[in-house]
Amino acid sequence: MVELEFVIGDPRVCTGCMICVNVCSMRFFKTISPARSRARVLRIEPALDFPLFCRNCEDAPCIDACPEGAIRRTKKGTVIISEAKCTGTGDCVEACPYAAIKINPDTGKAIKCIQCGECVSRCPVDALQITTREKLQETDPDGEILSLHDEHADILYGKEETP
Amino acid sequence: MKGVGGEILWIDLTEQEIDARPIEESMVRKFLLGAGFLSKVLFDHIPADADPLSSENVLGIATGLLTGSMFPQASRHLVAALSPLTGIWGESHAAGFWGPELKMAGYDAIIFKGISPEPVYLNIRDDDVALVDAKNIWGKDVFETDELLHKRHGKKCRILSIGPAGENLVRFAAIMNDRDRASARSGLGAVMGSKKVKAISVRGTGKIDVADPDNYLKEMDRFHKRMLDNPFTPERAKYGTTNLVEMMQEIGRLPSYNFRQGVFDEYEKISGQKIYDEHLVKARADWCCLQRCGRVTTVREGPYKYTGGAPEFETQSSLGSRCGNDNVESVLFGHHLANKYGMDTISLGGTISWAMEAWDEGLLTEEDTEGIDLSWGNAEAIIELTKMIAHREGFGDLLAEGSAKAAEEIGRGTEKFVMAVKKQEIAGQEPRAQKSMGLAAATAARGADHLYAFPVLDEAGFDDEIRERFGEEYLPEMTDRLNPKYKGIMVKECEDYMVVVESVGLCKYGTQIPPEFYYPAVSKAIQIHNGIELSEKQLKEIGERIVNINRLFNAMRGITRKDDSLPKRLTQQAAPTGPSKGQTVELDDMLEEYYEERGWNLESGLPTKETLRRLSLEEEMKRTGLW
Ligand code: SF4
Ligand code: SF4
Ligand code: SF4
Questions:
Q1: Those residues with Cβ within 8 angstroms of residue B306's Cβ, 6 or more apart along the chain or in another chain
Q2: Cα(A7)–Cα(B74) distance, rounded to whole angstroms?
Q3: C-beta separation of A78 from A114 below 8 A
Q4: pLDDT single digits (tens) A39-98
Q5: How much is the mean pLDDT over chain B?
Q6: What angle separates helix B435-443 from helix B487-504, to the nearest 10 degrees?
Q7: Dihedral, CA atoms, B179, B184, B190, B195, nearest 10 degrees?
Q8: What pLDDT score does A163 carry?
């Protein structure tokens, strides 16, 4: 089986500048818009800044949740959403445990990080890495990055959006 | 026009009416957005005899043309009104995420007129814009307000607010955003307080479409690379502005003991290195910022315990050396409190240090201070007064007026110790050690100010940039910070450029120190982001126009050459010690050169008819009734 890659950031190093978010919306949708980016950044006071991405889950609940069969895994292991098939039901948004999918308000279709690496290379403080579960154990042997994510899971992955 | 929100919100608080009007490209071509736009709008809408805290004052908040773009540090918005501290032009700027969010919601600026009958906050969620009852928030501090509004409107909204200082009309109250970012100077928090507007919550799910999407990332990458490769960037990221303490001490430019001198023997105790070693938690950045001067710091225990955003060099100077205070924990905590209550730390420390010197001279006693000992360096008193000023309690009520008004009220010769220009306290630059800063403080439109011109090119020997921006013929005098020669020319040019920077929403870090980006970069950015062609020459003219309309605004309120002055201490008493020992500020010589360069009358210090005509400000000139 292929190694599943995903992007993850260190909330202690990330400054919260949003460059990654804007790089993504510009690259894919030719506009500056956090609401149209496959990445997001969430600041947690007093001193953490979380850049957040699809984790490329092994079990990928988003795939199962899609009633249109629009989500699949490529040979390289990337979970992708077919624009042609997606009808914007939002079931995947509900199913994703990492709040990593959103509906692009212009197209009405679901979008998520596809691990292209564009933002990783442009982060001015090298807070981001494209990695796998195994590789991450080498680059972050104490598991601090994941445990900080876990610790703040409620806020990071909460889907409530007060009107 | 691309790269903008597209509309201006006009809000009549008295009538509780909201009106969204499109921005006009003709106005942008003449004044840009941000500082220039507000300069024109406020000139047009505030009556000459208006009281700053009355319903006649107009409070404007505007983003720049490039705010929300991907240009390095394009995060800023600007606030302006008639200042309750100075009675003249008041403006203040801040970084953060609030400005870009406003653009995402579809707006470039908000103009408040009138006074709301009850406390309100403005809630913006894309097209939904409403004034909301703020009874339950009024009285809360900045951090509480931030939390409450996030709870109410979701974690993604961005909050701008005033704290108790603004509500209590402290004359140097700030407008805060994103918790720790401050539009601090000019006391505009008090204007917002007088209008009974507690906060503005913004959530924008829209987008900023740019003029050249195909080349955008490539071009912005180049700008990012330039910024990252600049030798100043790693230093700035490591220390923020805090290590300016060490640099300023070295050249004798660190105001100490209320500007008695420019060196502080205990400087190491409040230095950038000390804060880096013992208190720094992390560096933070605002929208698309590669400099990351934002700090999260902590004091782990004791009476000054906190964790949060702070400090900035200005506070190390104002609450530290300027008050003879070497207790760094109190400096950090004082900054934290000023953020929490929403106050300008420069005028705060400037006012306290005025009182400390008056105390030292025996002109203020325990009878005035209700028992507070104002000896130099009394950290406890500084913290106590910070709280009392924000709440206008006891002696704090007097200090909340700022040093100039407080001295007027107390008299007894305390006026001598007011280190202000046009009633605003001078920032952390000892002008006797850098003459250009003295001139800049004297001429700045908002009263004493280091940022209106921010003439730092002679501070750290940017010879190459001076060559590029001015020409070989001005060297070596222009780079010599103790030589008054050519400083009039330098300050004029710096003012013009800095108001352009404030009008496009960029940061002075990157445009002035380090001086990485100059007109050609700004012009290029406007082209690919907004799709407007504005040459270097055109931008320079716009800058000059903005400075001149600010001057007209002030002229209508009685400002002339006599007000472009500095405290006598700086022009007549030689610096007593340190590297600039023996120096005074040769203000008159520099002023003559400055007026000459500006095309202003040497006697009145006001623009000549020809100058105003050349800048297409004739109509405005007529309206002042002075020409
Ligand atoms: S670009 Fe880097 S520092 Fe900036 S928000 Fe993204 S991860 Fe954080
Ligand atoms: S979108 Fe969500 S559920 Fe699907 S793979 Fe990514 S993180 Fe997992
Ligand atoms: S890796 Fe690519 S798709 Fe994923 S967030 Fe970054 S730029 Fe967007």
A1: B298, B299, B332, B333, B336
A2: 26
A3: yes
A4: 999 999 999 999 999 999 999 999 999 999 999 999 999 999 999 999 999 999 999 999
A5: 97
A6: 60
A7: -60
A8: 45
With CA atoms as reference, the chain A residue closest to B280 would be: A47
E strand or H helix that includes residue A2: none
User: Is residue A1's pLDDT more than 70?
Assistant: no
Q: Which atom from ligand 3 is nearest to the alpha carbon of A53?
A: 5
What three-state secondary structure class fits A134? helix
From the CB of A96, is ligand 2 less than 6 Å away?
Answer: yes
Within a 13 Å sphere around the CA of B30, how many CA atoms are in the beta-carbon half?
A: 16
**Distance from the alpha carbon of residue A112 to the mean position of ligand 2, in angstroms:** 8
Sheet holding B120-125, edge to edge: B128-133, B120-125, B197-203, B158-161, B175-177, B181-183
Interface test with B, best of A10, A13, A15, A40 (most B CBs within 10 A): A15
Give which of B191, B199, B206, B196 is closest to B158, Cα–Cα.
Answer: B199
- Angle, CA B279 vertex, CA B274 and CA B280 arms, to 5°: 100
- The answer to whether the CB of A128 is under 6 A from ligand 1 is yes
Nearest CA to ligand 1 atom 3: A14
Q: Does B214 touch chain A (CB under 8 A)?
A: yes
pLDDT per residue as tens digits for the range A99-150: 999 999 999 999 999 999 999 999 999 999 999 999 999 999 999 999 999 9
Residue range B470-488: mean pLDDT, rounded: 96
| Range list of H helices, B204-320 | 213-229, 232-239, 244-251, 272-278, 313-315
Distance from CA of A50 to the nearest CA of B (A): 12
Structure tokens at B51: 């009281």
Nearest ligand, measured from the Cα of A62: 2
State whether B213 and A26 contact (CB < 8 Å).
Answer: yes
